Amino acid sequence: MAANEIRASAIVQAPAAHVYNIIADYRDGHPRIVPPKYFTWMRVDSGGIGAGTTISFGMRVLGQSRTLHATISEPDPGRVLIETYPEDGFATTFFVEPEGAAASRVTIATVLNQRPGLAAALERFVSRRMLPAIYRQELQRLAEHAEGRHVHAPIPQGHQP
Fold first, then answer.
1. How many domains does the chain have?
2. Is residue 157 in a domain?
3. How high is the mean pLDDT in each 10-residue block of the chain (161 residues)?
4. CA spacing 20 to 30 A to 19: which of 28, 46, 77, 150?
5. Distance CA 150, CA 154 (A)
């Protein structure tokens, strides 16, 4: 793991294809697994499933709200999905690996940009503290959904003030 990378992993007791399909579905699956404590809304701007999808969403961290935009790619469909945030210069990657026929190892990883300056350093500091907790919650919600234990309501769609 690179020094500027933040990641979290979990085993999900569901086949890799099922787990990946939930992550790649930005119209229904993905809005159900993101923690509503941090994600306030999500909108599909184009596409909706996998590569070529573009999304916008609101995040609230440490009392600060911001809107982010991402483009989705799938360099290894069914195994690797990447959300690229062009305005911020970073990306979050979802890795889904089979662990036998009925389980999956899911990893969420973000490589932080290496911009200079105090604001960038503060952003990296906050990200290193907050992202692991956000990813653990997202992985827990994904496991509950994929395993059929609990299907969470999706976060609101569209732009919310």
1. 1
2. no
3. 78 98 97 95 97 95 85 98 89 96 96 62 63 94 96 84 50
4. 46
5. 12
